[in-house]
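Ligand: zinc ion. Inputs:
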Amino acid sequence: MSTAYFSPPECRRHDMGAGHPECPARLDAINDWLLASGLDAGLQRHDARPASLTDLTLAHTQAYVAELSDQLQRCEQQGEHVALDPDTAANPHTWRAALMAAGAAVQATDLVLDGHAQNAFCAVRPPGHHATRDQAMGFCFFNNVAIAARHALDVRGLKRVAIADFDVHHGNGTEDIIAGDERVLMVSIFQDELYPYCGGVPKGTNMVNVPIPAYTRGAEVRDIVEAMWLPALEAFKPEMIFISAGFDAHRLDDLGQLGLVEADYEWITLKLLDVARRHAKGRVVSCLEGGYNLSALARSVGVHVRALSEA
Ligand SMILES: [Zn+2]
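Predicted complex:
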């Protein structure tokens, strides 16, 4: 079995304006690197289908989905641009991109659960982990990973899934959605005192939130993962693991001040794959979150995808 790979072309057309770090070129950098490195040849490419209303309301309120859908479809039909918060904006292609990003995550989950792929990576944008039940924020509209995790539980009947989030920013949206849902264990690391300025006090007993001081290097982050994430994951025995794969904790990324490098992302991925092999039949679905230094992003996704494809 192999690694399913989603990179819907619609995701490239969502654009929040010149100079915005969450830009279409991120996907180009990733796809170029996968091609140039030869990794592309080992991946099972799939076209995504758009998420349905039923998918979206697994993680979001009906009212939010209705309101965002009105707003984004108005942009689509009237060629408008609209700002949802100071750093989150929609263009006429955002609605379609957001549906494909969430849809890819759901479809990846089905492929893996149906045994058509061992694991999957979704190179999608907009990212999702800041989107709460009822609010778009921090470059995010729909919470792709939370929707996919709930799909695995509510639609596909799994009893326990884990979400691992190694983005430099706290996945407050995912926490908002799954805190208190004891079928989900969320483990995360994030830079302390950085956007969205929360997470230090977890909102539920199913959360392992580990804030890390700025300028922490990879070796210490590995120690933290070993001490805080792995025992919790081992005890929880997830039947599937979802990864909020943000690569903005990279040493070269200007949006955060942590010191991870490619080898650290590879190490974390391999550790999560170990847990998946022991408890989850190897089932992993990983979705792109942040990562804004284009070359560091591409190389980091490269080692992450290589680890998935060699699992
Ligand atoms: Zn981030």
